[in-house]
């Protein structure tokens, strides 16, 4: 009786390259299909946890609502990234881009991005509340929306003098005049 191989080993980052902070956007684009979803921060790969069902439902409903209600000139997207610089990429839950959009791209430059949206989960609290907003702000992305779960709560921020300033805080209806007029009933995106 011989032992049968159990399949190939699961992908993981090269420890030397991680320690050197030597990963680039090109490396991320060339990861194997079985690699986990990652963000690149200053040359270091950060594995992004898979969102739970409620998180995904909120995102799916939000992007669907935006797709139906955004004015011309804007395009909602999900499961794509923002290219902050050659050593940093982020994967927001959703974003709104200036259209037209080249749908063959996975990463978009910050000047194409109008709004980034992060849906906070237990495993992403620190990154979504502190780390990612500062990176988005430094890249000049004009609007940041943070969605908290349980209860569903949306915080909208505008970039002012290099920092995000709170412009809306709601559990009922998100009403904004910038970057476009919007009235989003929060119940429409609830899981």
Please state the structural category.
Answer: alpha+beta
Terminal CA distance reads 51 Å
Number of domain units: 2
Order the strands across the largest sheet as they lie in space.
3-6-8-9-10-11
Overall pLDDT score = 93
Biggest pleated sheet: 6 strands, mixed
Rough outline: globular
Strand content: 25-35%
Query: What is the count of helical runs?
Result: 4
Q: Helical residue percent?
A: 10-25%
Assign the CATH architecture of the largest domain: Alpha-Beta Complex
What would the CATH topology of the largest domain be? Answer: tt1808, chain A
The topology string of helices and strands comes to HHEEHEEEEEEHEEEEE
What is the fold's blueprint, element by element?
Blueprint: H1 15-19, H2 25-29, E1 38-41, E2 44-47, H3 53-69, E3 74-78, E4 81-85, E5 88-90, E6 94-98, E7 107-108, E8 113-119, H4 125-138, E9 143-148, E10 153-160, E11 163-170, E12 173-176, E13 182-185
Parallel strand pairs: 4-7, 8-9
Antiparallel strand pairs: 1-2, 3-6, 4-5, 6-8, 9-10, 10-11, 12-13
In short:
This protein is an alpha+beta fold. The protein has helices spanning 15-19, 25-29, 53-69, 125-138, and strands at 38-41, 44-47, 74-78, 81-85, 88-90, 94-98, 107-108, 113-119, 143-148, 153-160, 163-170, 173-176, 182-185.
């Amino acid at each position: 009786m011989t032992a049968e191989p159990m399949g190939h080993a699961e992908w993981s980052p090269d420890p030397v390259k991680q320690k050197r902070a030597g990963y680039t956007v090109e490396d991320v684009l060339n990861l194997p299909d079985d690699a986990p979803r990652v963000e690149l921060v200053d040359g270091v790969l950060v594995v992004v946890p898979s969102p739970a069902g409620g998180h995904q439902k909120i995102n799916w409903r939000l992007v669907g609502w935006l797709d139906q209600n955004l004015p011309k000139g804007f395009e909602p997207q999900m499961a794509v990234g923002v290219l902050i610089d050659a050593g940093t990429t982020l994967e927001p839950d959703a974003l709104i881009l200036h259209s037209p959009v080249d749908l063959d791209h996975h990463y978009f430059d910050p000047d194409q991005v109008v709004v980034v949206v992060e849906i906070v989960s237990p495993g992403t609290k620190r990154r979504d509340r502190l780390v990612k907003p500062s990176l988005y702000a430094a890249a000049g992305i004009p609007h940041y929306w943070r969605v908290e779960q349980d209860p569903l709560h949306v915080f909208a921020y505008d970039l002012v003098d290099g920092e995000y300033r709170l412009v809306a805080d709601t559990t009922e209806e998100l009403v904004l005049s910038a970057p476009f007029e919007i009235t989003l009933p929060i119940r429409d995106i609830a899981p």
